[in-house]
Specification:
about 100 residues; mainly alpha; elongated
Length: about 100
């Protein structure tokens, strides 16, 4: 009588590997993390700058309409706040990752 075939995939702790978790092995480093977050914060900063330009154009084209001026001013304010948050977040990430 022949023995049964081995299972196709072993997942979870076993006698040979008691710490197996079935999770993929990721080859990540601090440099990879920092580079990825720099890309994300760069995109956020670029979007904020584009929004500032759009707000400035709307402000210039408002032609004295108070509602359009308020809308344009709010766009500029929110974009500047978003840009400040993105710059602060990147500075914090660089500081934290650099001290790991």
């Amino acid at each position: 009588m022949t023995p049964p075939p081995p299972p196709l995939a072993t997942c979870g702790p076993s006698i040979n590997n008691p710490t197996a978790t079935c999770l993929p092995v990721v080859q990540a480093s601090q440099a990879n993390l920092q580079h990825g977050l720099e890309i994300v914060f760069g995109i956020i900063g670029a979007v904020a700058v584009i929004m500032i330009i759009i707000g400035a154009l709307q402000f210039a084209l408002a032609q004295g309409d108070p509602n359009a001026v308020i809308k344009a001013r709010n766009i500029i304010i929110y974009a500047v706040v978003g840009l400040a948050v993105a710059i602060s977040a990147e500075a914090i990430v660089i500081f934290v990752v650099g001290n790991l």
